[in-house]
Design goal:
Layout lengths: L6 E4 L3 H12 L8 E4 L4 H11 L2 E2 L3 H6 L3 E4 L6 H8 L8 E4 L6 H8 L5 E5 L9 E7 L5 H12 L2 E5 L5 H9 L1 H18 L4 H21 L4 H8 L5 H11 L2 H25 L7
Parallel strand pairs: 1-2, 1-4, 2-3, 4-5, 5-6, 7-8
Antiparallel strand pairs: 6-7
Length: 282
């Protein structure tokens, strides 16, 4: 069994912070054993250091030499330059986990120029409260033991589902981006509640609790989603009136398009960055 005691984040954005907050709050990794670097943003690093008591540095050799897990949390557009920057300090003893949308394990292995254990993950920002929905796949040089160590780490900040890499674009669109879609719906519901002169705080609480309850029903009930919807919908009732408005505006088609477009973008990112060194192939 591999034990992960020290982690280095390359990239200091919102996803990195969500994971850091979750790991510390769950006492999975001591804050002093978490190290973070980014390209140039001193203010961001200082903020994270002050907020969580972690180590921050631009000295890549120092923070990468004594670590067990490197989490690649840079923006996808910075993947190649970020990987080239750390390449001199990556060792075969390191486990490398990526949270970059659309960036394949093969691409990471190619740029690092070595048979490293690479694991592609897609958590979401709910990791900061221990409720992320993370999907994970392993690269060709990654053993089950490596994957299990990373899986246990991400279980500390939510649920983990292991998939084959061919499904990562789909799971990114569903679970990685999914909270944003739900927040979008919640915003619309809150605006409607304000029109009905319901207190904003009460409306937010009602919407959140309704989403949580529906989520638990989806997980615990054996009924189909269609049946769960039908069970609430009395002919001529209030739910039917609301659903009729959604159907008239083809909201179901909009949500299908939402997920499909997100998955398509993940694939586009993969293609773009794999070909960026050979523009003639585009």
């Amino acid at each position: 069994m591999i034990t992960i005691n020290r982690i280095t984040f390359v990239g200091a954005g919102s996803m990195a912070e969500s994971i850091i907050k979750g790991l510390i709050s769950k006492k999975m990794i001591p804050s002093q054993n978490i190290m973070v670097t980014n390209r140039t943003d001193d203010e961001r690093l200082e903020c994270l250091e002050e907020k969580y008591g972690i180590q921050v540095s631009y000295d890549d050799e120092r923070i990468l030499t004594d670590t067990d897990l490197i989490i690649l949390a840079m923006k996808p557009k910075d993947a190649r330059s970020g990987l080239q920057r750390i390449r001199p300090y990556v060792k075969k003893s390191h486990i490398i986990a990526s949270v970059m949308a659309g960036i394949t394990t093969g691409f990471i292995e190619e740029v690092l120029e070595g048979p490293y254990p690479v694991i592609r993950t897609m958590p979401n920002t709910s990791s900061e409260i221990g409720l992320s929905t993370t999907t994970l796949c392993r690269g060709k040089n990654t053993t089950i033991t490596h994957a299990q160590a990373v899986e246990e780490l991400f279980k500390a900040v939510g649920s983990v589902t292991v998939v084959q890499e061919q499904y990562m674009d789909a799971t990114t669109a569903l679970a990685g981006s999914g909270p944003a879609y739900l927040y979008y719906v919640a915003e619309a519901m809150k605006q409607a509640a304000q029109t009905l002169e319901l207190d904003e705080g009460k409306a937010r609480e009602l919407i959140a609790d309704t989403m949580i309850g529906a989520g638990h029903m989806m997980k615990e009930s054996t009924a189909s989603l269609n049946q769960l919807r039908i069970d609430i919908t009395s002919p001529g009732g209030t739910t039917a009136a609301g659903l009729n408005a959604l159907m008239e505006h083809h909201v179901d088609e909009a949500f299908k398009r939402c997920v499909l477009d997100a998955a398509k973008r993940s694939k586009e990112l993969q293609r773009h960055f794999s070909l960026e060194k050979n523009p003639a192939q585009r």
